[in-house]
Amino acid sequence: MKNIKAKRKAQKSVSYGKYGYLFIAPFFIIYFIFDLWPLFTTFYYSFFEYYIRNLTESMNFCGFDNYRNVLGITAGEKAYFLKYLKNTVILWLGNFIPQILLSLLLAVWLTDNRCRLKGIGLTKVMIYLPNMITAASISVLFGVMFSQYGPVTAFLRDVCKVTIPYGDFLKDIGSTRFLISFVLFWMWFGSTTILLISGMLGINPNLYEAADIDGAGGWKKFTKITVPLLKPILLYTLITSAIGGLQMYDIPALFNTDAAAMIGLPDDTTTTVTMYIMRLYKADVGKASAISVLLFLITLAISVVLFCIMGDHEKGGK
After folding, report:
1. Residue 39 included in any domain
2. Reported pTM
3. What is the rounded distance in angstroms from the CA atom of residue 185 to the CA atom of residue 82?
4. How far is it, in rounded angstroms, from Cα 245 to Cα 303?
């Protein structure tokens, strides 16, 4: 009788586990359609001569010729990919290095109980505010301000008597690269600061109290307690910054370019890899796909190196 009652209860009970798959299914469907499938097709097209001329397409298998061409290995081909990769890395490092240093400083300052700052919440909002402005708005704003007849240029030239190269910041390579890096830094340092603050708030205060009892100074507490325990957040910040930096497009493409927004001025020195991909995609899909694959592999390699350097390694053996 007990077995019969148990079977009846089992038949009447409802299994809710299957509904969980229905809830998570949309994510996997969207990911497959808009992320995974385009990734596979990019690898596929990179092995073809895929040209678009006058609304007609021609597609022929070419093996690794596209990769050799974009890397300048084939005779007569210039290594534009390496040139634009250099531009991209310069712009990325120019904004990320000061960004991470300032964000660490602000995070330590805003989480230090001894400072007892007022209006910390308002300060965090003000720091994060530039991240909420669209890239197009910031690019246009800084482009107008630092143009030949812009207010900042006129003030520095006429009032401060500063010598401006070529009379225009946007005609000088160093000035243009600095301004693009500064715009990227100004946009993203607030987001990085908030991430680091959240990580620091998760550190046990007892560790700092113990360090104070042992007579440790501020620098030693920062290097021996804060930085090691912030490794997961720092790793996340480094990897996401590397991915976003190598794929940067909007700010360089809108700040100082030609009429088609494909060549970064002056003299093609602020053209990034993604701008080069967009330029090729309109005519040579095969080469654009090959560059996308190379960029993916470089990003993957950087991420793996960062994981190996900053990841937690358990000591084996006894």
Report:
1. no
2. 0.88
3. 24
4. 13
